[in-house]
Amino acid sequence: MFRDTGKFLAERLRQIIPDSFVFAILLTLVAGVSAWGLTESSAFEVLEAWYTGFWMLLEFGMQMVLILATGYAIALSKPVSRLIDKTARRISSPFQVYVVVMIFGGLLTLISWGWMIITAVFAREFASRIDRIDYAYLTACVYLSSWTWVCGLSSSIPLLLNTDGNFMLESGLLDTKVPIEATLGSTVNLVYFVFGIIIIPATMVMMRPRQTKAIALDKMLEQKTDADTPSVAQEAEQLRHPFRTLSDNLNHGRVPQLVIVLAGIVYIFSHFAGKGFDLNLEIMIFIFLMLGLLVHRTPMNYVVAMKRSCSNVSGIIFQYPFYAGIMGLMMYTGLGLVIAEWMSAFATPISLPVIAQFTGAVVNFFIPSAGGEWAVVGPSLIEAAKTIGATLTPVELQQLIAKIGLAVAYGETSTNLLQPFYLLIILPVMGAGVKLQARDVMGYMIIPFLVWYVFTAAILTWVPM
Q1: pLDDT of residue 429
Q2: Any residues with CB less than 8 A from the CB of 1 and at least 6 apart, and which?
Q3: Which of 180, 287, 334, 370, CA to CA, is 20 to 30 A from 42?
Q4: CA–CA dist 282, 262 (Å, integer)
């Protein structure tokens, strides 16, 4: 039943869902009209809030471009190619590929959500080596595998709650930090992870298309196949002069690049020695950059790899400002606060986490960033927790606030399946030279979203912290 339903939804939504940029435009219009109608902001103030927010994700957008490009460049190296070859020889069926991609991707993004790009590269290579893989469904598996980030080491709301001098401490909303042990180390988060690592892949596996109807990668390629493309090293060699030159010696020399790599490794070790396992976007990009230089060995090899890696990032570059504009509408007109107050008006200590989950799920359509979303809805939800939890002990109140933070993060992550914002991270890899769009993938997300959302609500309701 799941298989037929998944295929039906994929085919129908392919006819309904527009391009991801159109989705961003429609959400902008909805947010703008809502801000004008539901807040005291004038039409010009709404317009001004949109423009102000437009530039809020420039740093984040550049980080996304770099995490994509540096991660993809590593995957284009000979060592990774050999690793993929060895792994592919042990996998012979599409079923095995789907399961491996979801489990492997889940473990990677447990460390950092940006590592979904590595899952995408592995999946792309598997699809080029193994027959009868449905490529759109495989892309959905890659995207879905990234869910574990929210209960892992890069979960932004728990990290923010444990940060010295965070905006909630400075504003007086919180008296003390909420330790990681109370959020990521809680029973709720552990149960959430165990449930997800079993139920989510199982749901997707039951939806997998029949092999006889699978549309494989080679049928979706627009022009030449991946096999027709020269390797990075071959293209770098083609750029040499027909005679010996100083420029070629520098371009293909290994020593200067190795010195840079060694300096980078020294800093990486000092970073973790001094700050513990502080894995943020900046240090992750730096690690990817140094590792890419190491595995490609020469400057020209790395130049070619980065040129290929950067060839499909247009969606991130021009769409992120539109989502930042929506974030500005939510923050600067007070629309986010209005939504949060609606959600928490009739809450109880038992129902508030589920309401927070729903708030996170709804607001995520307009602010597809957990940290940005928490900045908008977190204060009102914490005020609601302090009001309805007036009779709780300080420890119990902290546990309630920790559960609310997790609930917003869980809700935010669940509706990533229903909108294509973060799909832009993997589409440059999975969609390179392929007739593949977000609408070809999103239909496979409906059933997993429903299963995931309901079970998460049950965990938030009945599992103690």
Answers
A1: 80
A2: none
A3: 370
A4: 18
C-alpha closest to that of 138 among 436, 449, 338, 413 = 436
In the DSSP assignment, the letter for residue 221 is: B
Give the count of beta carbons closer than 10 Å to the beta carbon of residue 47: 15
Instruction: Please count the residues of the chain.
Output: 465
DSSP 37: H
Tokens of 277: 């396992």
Q: What is the DSSP letter of 230?
A: P
Per-residue pLDDT tens over the stretch 382-404: 878 877 877 788 888 888 889 99
- Give the tens place of pLDDT for each residue, 115-135: 787 888 888 888 888 888 888
What does the pLDDT look like over 288-323, one tens digit per residue? 899 999 999 899 999 998 888 787 677 778 877 887
Place of tokens 């493309």: 229
Helix (H, G, I), strand (E, B) or coil at 77: coil
Q: Which residues pair with 434 in a beta bridge?
A: 221
CA-nearest of 440, 435, 373 to 217 is: 435
For residues 53 and 286, what is the distance between their CA atoms, to the nearest angstrom? Answer: 28
Long-range own/partner contacts, residues 282-286 (CB < 8 A, 24 or more apart) = 282/63, 284/67, 284/112, 284/114, 284/115, 285/63, 285/66, 285/67, 285/70
Distance CA 423, CA 421 (A): 5
C-alpha gyration radius of the chain: 23
Placement of tokens 């909108």 in the chain: 419
Q: What is the pTM of this model?
A: 0.74
Structure token digits, residue 329: 């509408």
Q: Which residue type sits at 159? A: L
Q: How many other CB atoms sit within 10 Å of the CB of residue 231?
A: 15
